[in-house]
Specification:
The chain is of the alpha/beta class. The protein is about 25% helix and about 30% strand. It contains six helices and eleven strands. The protein has a seven-stranded mixed β-sheet with strand order 3-2-1-4-5-11-10. A four-stranded antiparallel β-sheet has the order 6-7-8-9, with no helix packed on it. Strand 8 and strand 9 form a beta hairpin. The chain is globular.
């Protein structure tokens, strides 16, 4: 059984609304452009496809997209937008679930690989990506850089958004690399709703080691989908690992 939180009906129903800023063109368009270029016209597989935020506009670019998603309610929301014959999705976890075929591109966006809360599962996720890739294909991960440099001694939480509508902060366990994102949202009626999600944070160098264990090689690392340079001050990264052209089939 995967360690990921299983998003329920209520969370899925509200997901697009509470994530509206991630659907904005200035956020989404660069991601779709980046991924379409790497796919090169070949098929793509999205891990943790959710409600189709990235997959649907990528498919609209002519890319054949397949998805894996743990939450059936999230898939049900996607189905309201696109039928199964246009964007097939298999329900399962991204560490072990397989789908038919091989892909030019496998990707996992918006920190979703952190939903796997153990290192073993994250390693398996990289191996699962490699298993699905054609020789020469690429695995792309969009992930935040843990903000623990901002911790003064004795502090265990760091805010990531503070507005009149939403207060969000992460708590971290430095020993286990486990964390929880806490969200307090003010609703239209003035009431406040609390929600949380658990994660395991991964350093970029740790990602590279996981990729190496899966037989993949780092090809590119940038700060975001606009390809801004990745520096020691970057708070996120988009990393691309490539499967060797002479790699044996991992079926």
């Amino acid at each position: 059984m995967t360690s990921s939180d299983l998003w329920d009906e209520d969370t899925a129903e509200r997901y697009d609304a509470i994530s509206a800023e991630m659907f904005a063109p200035d956020v989404l368009d660069p991601a779709v452009e980046f991924l379409a270029r790497l796919a090169g016209g070949g098929p793509a597989l999205e891990f943790a496809i959710g409600t189709g935020r990235v997959a649907i506009p990528l498919a609209a670019r002519g890319i054949s997209v397949t998805g894996i998603e743990l939450s059936q309610p999230m898939v049900d929301r996607l189905r309201r937008k696109v039928p199964a014959q246009e964007l097939p999705v298999v329900v399962g976890d991204m560490a072990t679930t397989t789908v038919p075929g091989r892909f030019s591109l496998v990707y996992v966006a918006w920190n979703s690989i952190g939903n796997l809360c153990t290192q073993d599962e994250q390693v398996q996720c990289f191996r699962n990506a490699a298993r699905h890739l054609l020789p020469g294909g690429r695995f792309v991960v969009e992930l935040w850089v843990p903000g623990i440099r901002r911790f003064p001694p004795g502090q265990s939480a760091v805010p990531f958004e503070v507005t009149d509508r939403h207060v969000g902060f992460d708590t971290y366990d430095m020993v286990t690399q486990q964390g929880t994102s806490h969200h307090y949202r003010r609703l239209e009626d003035g009431s406040v709703r609390y929600g949380y999600s658990n994660f395991r944070y991964i350093w970029p160098a740790e990602c590279d080691l996981m990729a190496r264990l899966a037989g993949l090689t780092l090809e590119q690392r940038v700060a975001d989908w606009t390809e801004a340079p990745f520096t020691s001050d970057s708070e996120s990264h988009v990393s691309v690992w490539r499967k060797p052209l002479d790699a044996a089939d991992q079926g």
